[in-house]
Amino acid sequence: MTGRLQDKVALIIGSARGIGKGIAQRFAEEGARLILADSEAEAGQATADELGAAFIRTDISQMADAEAAVALALNRQGRLDIVVQNAGIYPWQLIENTSPDDWDRVMAVNLRGTFNATLAALPPMKAQGYGRMLYTSSITGPRVSSPGHGHYSASKAGINGFIRSAALEFSGYGITVNGVEPGNILTEAIELHRGAAYIKNMEDSIPLGRLGSPRDVANAFLFLASDDASYITGTTIVVDGGQLLPEGKDFRLLPP
Ligand SMILES: NC(=O)c1ccc[n+]([C@@H]2O[C@H](COP(=O)([O-])OP(=O)(O)OC[C@H]3O[C@@H](n4cnc5c(N)ncnc54)[C@H](O)[C@@H]3O)[C@@H](O)[C@H]2O)c1
């Protein structure tokens, strides 16, 4: 019995905890050989130890770090089949309170990090004639938004535009480029930075009645990373429990 990613080499950036850790766990279950990268060394190493993966401390906003993470994958495994750029930050900040430096920091991690991971992973994937480039976008930005998410929304909408361009440019190299747009996913960071009232409000607005889990998101990544998705490129999968569907807030009411 082999897994759906048996012996595929996957670099997952932003994988110490939350959604990225969920992706790493799911990929490991399906037989992938993992290289984990994260800016938090201790938590990242602990996750890697749990999964028998290699770990490298990486600030994905820095090109040299992205290149070092790819180099580790090549040194340890001799190839790189899948890159997942999941690292992202979401400070809550109204636009009128956002400084240019605040703006740049969100863009540096979420958007330049996406570019850095792509540019670093491209040479080995191009040489192999095979690659899966995957990104964590969000429904926030590409589809909807809420106050306090100006920079974040811009960065995630930017990722979707980048996915389309990269998919076109790399289509002749055997590389597919796709993303996942999570809705509201219950992670430690969401509990810490958004709090109970926000979570309750989101629960009430999700037709399936609960926030998503990292595993829900990881299952979409698994599909896009697998050979089942070999004819899919330049798109995103929304994983949101139906949150984008309602026309009004009383969507649970039926006509009398
Ligand atoms: N949780 C949600 O509801 C939700 C919804 C939509 C999209 N997302 C996106 O999913 C991704 C993960 O979110 P999460 O909720 O699991 O957050 P999280 O904070 O738990 O995980 C993010 C991981 O990225 C790492 N990271 C942060 N900055 C980094 C950097 N510069 N370089 C490398 N690693 C870095 C963190 O250390 C952490 O391990 C983010 O891109 C986020 O925008 C989350």
From TrEMBL:
Ketoreductase domain segment(s): 8-183
PROSITE patterns reported in the protein's UniProt record: ADH_SHORT (PS00061)
UniProt cross-references to CDD domains, sorted A to Z: SDR_c
Domain of life from the UniProt record: Bacteria
Keywords: Oxidoreductase
Molecular function in Gene Ontology: oxidoreductase activity, acting on the CH-OH group of donors, NAD or NADP as acceptor
SUPFAM superfamilies: NAD(P)-binding Rossmann-fold domains (SSF51735)
Pfam families in alphabetical order: adh_short_C2 (PF13561)
Family: Belongs to the short-chain dehydrogenases/reductases (SDR) family.
Protein name: SDR family oxidoreductase
Species annotation: Mesorhizobium neociceri
